[in-house]
Amino acid sequence: MELSESELKKQESLYEKGGVTLKDLKTASINYENAKSTVENSKLQLDKTRVVAPIDGVIVDLPYYTQSTQIETGSSIARIMDYQVMYMDVQLPEKYISVIKPGQLVKLTNYTIPEDTIIGSITQLSPAINAETRTFKGNISVNNPKYLLRPGMFVKADIITNHKDSVIVIPKNIILSRQRGKTVFTFDRGVVAERIIETGLENVTEVEVTKGLAKNERIVTSGFETLSNKSKVKIIK
What we know:
Order of helices and strands: HHEEEEEEEEEEEEE
Number of domains: 3
CATH superfamily of the largest domain: Efflux pump adaptor protein, beta barrel domain
Helix content: 10-25%
Distance between the termini: 95 Å
Strand content: 25-35%
């Protein structure tokens, strides 16, 4: 285009001096316009080679292509994920179908991030029970703004179905099942007493005591299997 423009200016100067014909001038003008159109079309074609993703996210797969080679239509040149919000599928035991509800909070942990607990919530629950596994399907939405969780990870999900504050909680493994009910041993002044208790909320390791124990009472947490009511014991530190 620059050469055509220079040639056009030359022909215009010569035409004014009578050195070339009008035909020569028009030919130079047409050549310049054609060259300018070619450049503009080339720029448009070049702009079309700029690939813009329709979403914000992170490149998770980038196939390698040799520079300056033509890529076939339909080929994948990159894979992008936006996982600031993630979704987790879970299979829940049948016995909890009347307990778990949409909107309940979920605490998620992964062994790669032991010090961080990520909060999610139940978004969908299937009303149908799988006849083979006796489970029903649930979907959890997880806010992941710091990208702590990655697509494909396995995580532990604790669904909070109920909670209480300021209650008495003891380890589940110290409770003995007797004919009279659940019992533990309390300790006071060298003597243990068998105490019947009633329990409430529980998790994997701990249980709430709703009746039978008072705040600050001392209970036996080891060696209780062989104890009997009113036994004298000695604490060895």
